[in-house]
Amino acid sequence: MEFSAKQIAEFIQGTVVGDENVTVHTFAKIEEGIPGSISFLSNPKYTHYIYDTEASIVLVNKDFTPEKEVKPTLIKVDNAYESLAKLLTLYEMSKPKKTGIDSLAYIAPTAKIGKEVYIAPFAYIGEGAVIGDNTAIYPHVTVCEHAQIGQNSILYPHVTVYHDCRIGNQCILHAGCVIGADGFGFAPSPEGYEKIPQIGIVVIEDNVEIGANTCVDRSTMGATIVHKGVKLDNLIQIAHNVEVGSHTVMASQVGVAGSTKIGEWCMFGGQVGLAGHIKVGDHINIGAQSGIASTVKGNNRNIMGSPAIDAKQFFKCSAVYKNLPDMFLTVNQLQKEIEELKTQLNKK
Hints:
Udp-n-acetylmuramoylalanyl-d-glutamate--2,6- Diaminopimelate Ligase, Chain: A, domain 1, flat
């Protein structure tokens, strides 16, 4: 399908600078733009590419002013990255959806399957499970007994949803993620570690996306809860009885220990680790590889390090840290000089 600059601008409420009749049929990064493609510029580091790109249309922020002539038609918007996301969503929605139940899928007699559902070969739908309307279940997905999947959700290959867990509407679960495996609960005894049965569930609310090979463990009792709008990257561990507040995002390899409560609209960088039984406020941004050992009080904070401290303080400390070897030599030299002065004073 082709769209003109005028049509695109109307959809994203932008202003055309250049030929409003130029058309595009694909997307490209600005440094790899080709004729017939649309790209975007939001990061100033990439500005130099706009003067050489072959893309036919480039989305730019309203405050962008070229320093010299540009070949592509520009569409000026409030937020180029956000506008690109809208266009990509429209493009994705225009693709034909798969529907139908393959004969090689297993569906238990008591399972309830909604309308316009796609269930691929070798998928397993257990007894009493519920699959909502317009949901897609890809090959080798396992939906265990009495689990519930909402409407318009996508479960990619090898996703496993354990028994009784609940997935909301408009959710995306990427390949290999596991929802509802047992929490890591063991009681020490003279003979070793005795397993504590994990009899709770996992609740994933609406509009949640969970990356490949990420695990959300079922609770010991009650529910592990991932609230609406949360986005989890690949290879993340959410332990038993954790609660993740709405619209929080986590990058790859974050680990959250049991019974920790995380607020809304938080942002965690890669490899952040959180201890168990603590609380994190709303709008808390945590830098990559930080260690959170205790409750993070207050809201709207940027923290970093292990143990984590205020981000600005962390960078000041880092600047000092790299100078420690020289500082150590200086301190040793000063100590020697002080001892020499003491010796001289004692002789008088």
